[in-house]
Known about the structure:
Layout: E1 7-13, E2 16-21, E3 24-29, E4 49-52, E5 60-63, E6 71-75, E7 78-82, H1 97-110, E8 115-119, H2 125-132, E9 136-141, H3 144-156, E10 164-168, H4 171-181, E11 187-190, E12 195-197, E13 203-205, H5 206-220, E14 227-232, H6 239-250, E15 257-264, E16 270-278
Parallel strand pairs: 3-4, 8-9, 8-11, 9-10, 11-14
Antiparallel strand pairs: 1-2, 2-3, 4-5, 6-7, 12-13, 14-16, 15-16
Amino acid sequence: xxxxxxxxxxxxxxxxxxxxxxxxxxxxxxxxxxxxxxxxxxxxxxxxxxxxxxxxxxxxxxxxxxxxxxxxxxxxxxxxxxxxxxxxxxxxxxxxxxxxxxxxxxxxxxxxxxxxxxxxxxxxxxxxxxxxxxxxxxxxxxxxxxxxxxxxxxxxxxxxxxxxxxxxxxxxxxxxxxxxxxxxxxxxxxxxxxxxxxxxxxxxxxxxxxxxxxxxxxxxxxxxxxxxxxxxxxxxxxxxxxxxxxxxxxxxxxxxxxxxxxxxxxxxxxxxxxxxxxx
Length: 279
């Protein structure tokens, strides 16, 4: 996990979360915190900024003072640039740090070169964790601006010269082409959204397309599979369901673990933050 000076979940409740990122405290929407009481309402007055979204309003940031345009957060060898985006995101999902550590351990345990395909790779946290541990990574995300952001993070982390191919493409189409080209991987990382669009307007719906993508990932790693990591934040996809889907794609005998991702607040309260399946 992040060290306390880099990230803390301070409180959550009433559909929101209060977090501190490297000295900047932010109040943001959090659907999984609906119907939960806040631990300490007084803490929320200390936010440097909050993201508000009502009705058809796409959302906007309200600053108490001046929010930095950009700032950095670090976890081990990985440094990520943060910014308050128009949709309320910052460029990092803190619950993923446990997965970054797990990825690094899998790469190091392989004892040799590991080729990793990272799909829906966002701003590159998993990519940088893997490449810092010695892997070669193909980083795929449909948003060109997000791929550029990930490349900036590689530079900030001193990893610009390490073996990463940066690709802006639709994940499903890219996986299909890689299979046809005969390219194979030792590992796959996936963090698919519930909904999304590819570079040419392709529509991604997790409920419809995830089984096929998992099947492709199984074929791309067949006979050489070192690890597979799937994370999911879509309602209705609990650990049991995702584990079954992944087992069907990789082979019923695949030794899988599945569990909830959580974030622990400074007072010990746990905030549900998705599901992770690991091979």
